[in-house]
Amino acid sequence: MNIFLAPLFSLFSLRFYRQAVLSSLSKGLAYLAYLSFLAALAFALLFHVYGKPEFREMNQWLQGNLPPLAYSPEGLTMNAGSPRTIVNPKYGLTITFDMTKDNISAEEAGNAMIFVTKKNLYVVAPKGQMRVYPLARPGRQGNLVSVNETLKKVGEVFDRWIAFLIFAASFPLFFIWKLLAAIFYSLPGLLINRMRREKLAYSAVLNVSFFALTPVFLIQLLDLAFPSLPLSLGLAGSLFLTTIYLFLGIKLTEEKIAPS
Fold first, then answer.
1. Statement: residue 59 has pLDDT above 50
2. Are 40 and 171 in contact (CB under 8 A)?
3. How far apart are CA 253 and CA 192, in angstroms?
4. What is the pLDDT of residues 165-217, one digit of tens each?
5. How many CB atoms are located within 10 Å of the residue 162 CB?
6. According to the per-residue pLDDT averaged within each range, which of 151-155, 208-212, 225-229, 232-236 is highest?
7. Radius of gyration (C-alpha) of the chain in whole angstroms
C-alpha cells in the first residue's frame, strides 16, 4: 500500500480497500497523519494567498492610525487627547482610547467595538456584553514600552511566520478532528461488518474508516477553499457518503464463495 497515493486510490479502488483491511492499524494512523499534513499545508497556503494580504492591510492600518501609546505595568499612557476614536471603514472596526478612565460600563462604550482605558481593554459583543482584559499589572516592575513600535515588530514577525504558525497549529487539530470522526464512522462500520461471513476485528474496521473518510474530507477542504460553491454536506451527507465507502471497504472486499 502506497500511503502517498492513498488519497487518490481511496476514492475508487476496491483493490486498495482489500489492502486496507489487511494492513496494520499503525498504517492507518500514518495515513491519517499524512492526510492531516496535506490538509494543514493546503490551509496554510490558502491563508498565505487570501488571508495574509488582509492581515497585512489591517496591521498597516493600525500602525498608521494608532495614537502614540506607551505601556508600563501601571497601565497605558497616550500622547494625545482623550478620548480618541479610530474607525476602519473596510471592516467597520471602531476602537476608542480614553486614558482618563480606568473602568467603563457598556453604556460608556458607546458604538466602540473595542474600548481601551488606562488599565483595561474591553471587547464589546453585538448584544452589548463586554469582555474585560486587564492591562495593568500592579506590583510589577518594568520600563515604559512603545506600543506602536512593539506592534510594528510583532507585525513583521507575523508577516514572516504566520503561514508556518497556522500550519503548525492546524496539523494536530486536523489529526484529532479526523481521528474522532473515524471512531464515529467506525460505528456504522461495525454494523456493516455484521453482514460479512467472516467478521473483521475492530482494528480492521477502524482502519478502513481512516481511508473511507477521505472523500468527505476532500469535499470539506474544497468547501473551505471555495466557500461560494454549494459543497457543504452537513453531518447527514457526510455520514451517508462515508457509509457508502465503508460498505465498499468492509463488505465488498469480502472474498466471494465459488459455486459448488
1. yes
2. yes
3. 12
4. 999 999 999 999 999 999 999 999 999 999 999 999 999 999 999 999 999 99
5. 18
6. 208-212
7. 27
Percent helix, strand and coil across the chain, each rounded to 5?
55, 15, 30
- Could you count the other beta carbons within 10 Å of the beta carbon of residue 241? 16
Place of cell 486614558: 99
Query: Could you tell me the residue ranges of all domains in the chain?
Result: 3-52+160-250, 61-159
Nine-digit cell string for 39: 490538509
Say if residues 78 and 67 touch (Cβ distance below 8 Å).
yes
- How large is the angle between the packed helices 214-225 and 202-212, nearest 10 degrees? 30
Cell of 104: 467603563
Q: Which residue has the cell 506607551?
A: 70
Burial 46-74 (b: 16+ CB within 10 A, else e): bbeeeebeeeeeebebbeeebbebbbbee
Q: d(Cα 129, Cα 146) in Å, to the nearest integer?
A: 30
Is the C-alpha dihedral spanning 27, 33, 36, 42 positive or negative?
negative
